[in-house]
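Question: Hello, beginner here. Any chance you could explain the protein record under this note? Any guidance would be welcome.
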Amino acid sequence: MTLVMGIVNVTPDSFSDGGRYLDPDVAIAHARLLRAQGADLLDVGGESTRPGAQRVAPRVEQQRVLPVVEALASEGAFVSIDTMNATTAVAAVRAGARLVNDVSGGLADPDMLTAVAETGADIALGHWRGPSAEMYARADYADVAREVADELDERVAAAADAGIDASRIVVDPGIGFGKRGAQNWQTLRALPALAARGHRVRRGPG
């Protein structure tokens, strides 16, 4: 089964929408439109992960996303929180989010996997080799598809060690994250093989 994820970037510097939805009311209206147009779940993020982006404090991130998450969840929407911060993940799940979308696969915050395990939420583990400020510094692969799959297996194992059941895990090959153009295409062509490893696959925008 294929589900469509609507992206709601509550940031001033998103690569995909130019910060049009920084105001919570505007973000909520945009999310409602995406849902009306057929989005099955809504991914709310308060920190840009575009190439070169700098990290923001969790406090700022939460000020941006929590009103949006709470409003959408109260309307019955399936809400995903796009964050690399454990404290934001926990706060968003308390506000109604049902999926934590961590593009770093739990590498950016050592507390993430344990924190998500305790919430009962599902988690999407992204393939990641470093922060957006140095997005392509580690884009060196001998066999990008195999290495992405193997590194995701390591994140799945880490999530399992933290107490997250396999049924709660989604893997994301991280298109655009630490991969250049041709590497992204090679990774996309290998999606069937990645799915064959047994986990749900999220193909996010890159």
